[in-house]
Amino acid sequence: MEGTDLILGGPARFGMGFGLPSATVPMRNPNTIYWGGYGGSLIIIDMDARTTVAYAMNKMAPTTTGDMRAFGLMMAMG
Length: 78
Description:
The protein is an alpha+beta fold.
């Protein structure tokens, strides 16, 4: 599904239960799926690199779908 997320009010691209790479959420490889949780937690599964990153923080951020701390870690992995 690709279009406007009716709950969050912004553009989104979803597969079967996960977010997919898009212009608003670019990923390094096209075969990558992800999802964020309340407070900033995030999981990213890169099937091309055979890598999974899960991030859970000690201090929750005021966000519902991940935050820049988690995305920064993913981009730093190379």
